[in-house]
Write a structure and sequence with these properties.
Elements (H helix, E strand, L loop, with lengths): L1 H26 L9 H25 L4 H26 L4 H39 L1
Helix pairs in contact: 1-2, 1-4, 2-3, 2-4, 3-4
Length: 135
C-alpha cells in the first residue's frame, strides 16, 4: 500500500516537473538548458523509486536499524550521483553548467519527496509498534 501511494506521488510530481520545465525551457534561450534534462528526469524517477523501495523493505524488516541503513544508502546514493554528474560534465563540457544546475534542482526535489514519504512511513511504523506494545 505504501509503495502504491509513493508511486502515485512520484508520478504526479514528475508530471508537474515535466510541465513546469517545458514552460521554463520554452521561455529560455537554448544555451540556458541542458539537452539531457529528459534523461535526468527518468534517472531521478527510477533512482528515487528504487531507493524508496529498498528503504521501505529495510524499515519493515529492521526498524531499529533504519537510521543506519538510511545514512548508508544516502551516502552511496550521493557517491553515485556525484559520479554521474562529474562524468557527464567531463564528457560534455559545453553543457556542464546547465547539466549541474538541472541535476541539483532535480536532486533537491526528488530527495524532498523521498524523505517526506520515508518519514511518514517511519512514524506509521512507530505508532503501530507503540500500539502493539500497549496491548
Amino acid at each position: 500500500m505504501a509503495m502504491k501511494r509513493f508511486l502515485r506521488t512520484l508520478v504526479i510530481a514528475t508530471l508537474a516537473i515535466i510541465i513546469i520545465s517545458a514552460i521554463v525551457y520554452a521561455a529560455l534561450p537554448t544555451g540556458y538548458y541542458t539537452t539531457a534534462f529528459p534523461f535526468l528526469v527518468v534517472f531521478f524517477f527510477a533512482a528515487t523509486l528504487l531507493v524508496y523501495y529498498f528503504m521501505l523493505k529495510s524499515l519493515e524488516k529492521r526498524p531499529a536499524k533504519f537510521v543506519n541503513i538510511f545514512l548508508l544508502t544516502t551516502m552511496v546514493k550521493l557517491l553515485v550521483y556525484m559520479a554521474v554528474m562529474v562524468s557527464y560534465a567531463l564528457v560534455n563540457r559545453g553543457e556542464a553548467r546547465q547539466f549541474i544546475v538541472a541535476f541539483f534542482i532535480l536532486y533537491i526535489i526528488y530527495t524532498i519527496i523521498e524523505v517526506l514519504a520515508l518519514l511518514g512511513e517511519n512514524s506509521k511504523m512507530g505508532r503501530k509498534k507503540f500500539l502493539q506494545d500497549i496491548e
